[in-house]
Structures are given as structure tokens and as C-alpha cells.
Amino acid sequence: MFFFTQRHAFHLVDPSIMPLLSSISCLVTTLGAVLYFHGFVAGLNVQLFGLFSILTCMFFWWRDVVREGTLEGCHTNIVQLGLRYGMILFIVSEIMFFFAFFWAFFAASIAPTIEIGNVWPPKGIEAFNPFEIPLVNTLILLCSGSTITYSHHSITAGNKKEAVFGLVLTVLLAVIFTCFQAFEYVSAPFAISDGIFGSTFYLATGFHGFHVFVGTIFLVVCLIRLLSNHFTIEHHFGFEAAAFYWHFVDIVWLFLYVAVYFWGGN
User: Fold this and answer.
1) Is 234 exposed, middle or buried (0-12, 13-18, 19+ CB in 10 A)?
2) Belongs to which family (predicted)?
3) Which of 120, 124, 177, 218 is a plausible cystine mate for 109, CB 3.0–4.6 Å?
4) Same domain, yes or no, for 205 and 86?
5) DSSP notation for 2-13
6) CATH number of the domain enclosing 166
7) Residue predicted with more confidence, 223 or 123
8) Residue 8 — pLDDT band, cuts 50, 70, 90?
9) Which domain holds residue 83?
10) Mean pLDDT of the residues in the chain
11) What confidence tens digit (pLDDT) does each residue in 164-195 have?
């Protein structure tokens, strides 16, 4: 009988169909959004199906990663270091993603064209008051950044009870933020089809809201794992990744508040 001994600390990932399915789901979601924006009846259904497919892929893919890191012990120290680098690079790519929206917004607002009356906001657009719901949401996200940091420090200190408390508060604040943004959209005096202002506003804040939604799922998964004793003082990269992502969401919102709501809306 021959026994195989692994002579390195790296993790050779098993073949998986999840990357392919996730890519197809993103394509279907984008296609559905384009159809919906152009008034096709089935566009919304296609988009919702794509979103459901993305969430399904997230569940099974994250399940596999959790199993590899928790039950199979594949996430050695050097593997965790590689995962941290990967998360940092992913966040950098997300920064570039939002950079495009800010570029479009500033290109239209700094030098408004004659088609929109040479003024910003364009004539006929009533922008949001930055000192109402947008300011409340800013305070909520800043508080959520503090609570998740508190939870992280509690994990590193071996205090599970305080870590759970901080993470639950973070999830609640995230849900409250999403509810306020949904209320803002429902009561908005302009739509995404109302020229360059509506397009840039809803694309920037809408994609941020989607990132908040994904981040909330990320935090809920971490909460379940924390209650299941998956995290230790030395081994809690899953939580660190969620914290990195959530701090990124906080920072992007600060730029959105200052640029889009405060400066661009007056």
C-alpha cells in the first residue's frame, strides 16, 4: 500500500464548475438588465433569474471553500496569505469599477453641456437634500464600520460573545441602510431615464447598494460560522475578508455622499 504525503503547504483546488456557472449567471443578469432598461417585458424576469443564479452559485461555492478551510484543513498559513492578496486585488478591481462611475459623473457635472442647460443639476431635476436620508445613511455605515472592527478585535482576543454582538449589530445596521436607500429610491423625484443625472446617480448608488447587499450576505455567513465555532484567534480569514469588503463599501459611500449628494446635488 502506498501513502501520498503532501510535501508543500499550498492548496491545489479540486476541479469545480462553480466559476463557469457564476460567469454565466452574471451574463444572464446583465442581459436581463439591458432588456429591462430597453422596455422588454421579460427583461425583469431574466434579471431576477440571473440574480437568483448568482446567489445559488455563491452558496455552493462558499460552502466548498468553508469545507476546505474548516473541515479539510487546506487553508494553511501560506494559503491564507495568498487569499489575503487575492482579496486585496479583488477590492482594487472594485475600486476601478466605481472609478468609472465617478469619472462619468464628474465629466458631466464639472462642464455641463448646453443640452442640459449648462447647469448642474440639469434643469427640471430636484436633487436629494444631503442632510436628510443620505446623511443618516452615512452615519449608519460609519457606525457599522466601527462595530465590525469591534467584532474583529473580539475574535483576536478570543471573546466570542462580544464578537457575535458586534457582528449582529453590523448586520442590523446594514439592513437599516438598505431599507433607507430603498425608501429613497421609492420617493425619488427623478428616474434613471431622466438624463445624465439620473443615469449616473442610479448607476453609482445602485451598484453600491448591490455591494451592500452582497456584503450583508457575507456578514451573515460569517455570523453563522462564528456561532458554529469556525473562527479561532489565528484562523479567521473568512471574517477578515468580509471586514475588508465592508470597509471598502464604507469608503466608497463616503465618496458618493460627498461627490454625488453634497457637491453634485447643489
Assistant:
1) exposed
2) Belongs to the cytochrome c oxidase subunit 3 family.
3) 120
4) yes
5) ------SS---P
6) 1.20.120.80
7) 223
8) low
9) 76-261
10) 90
11) 999 999 999 999 999 999 999 999 888 888 88
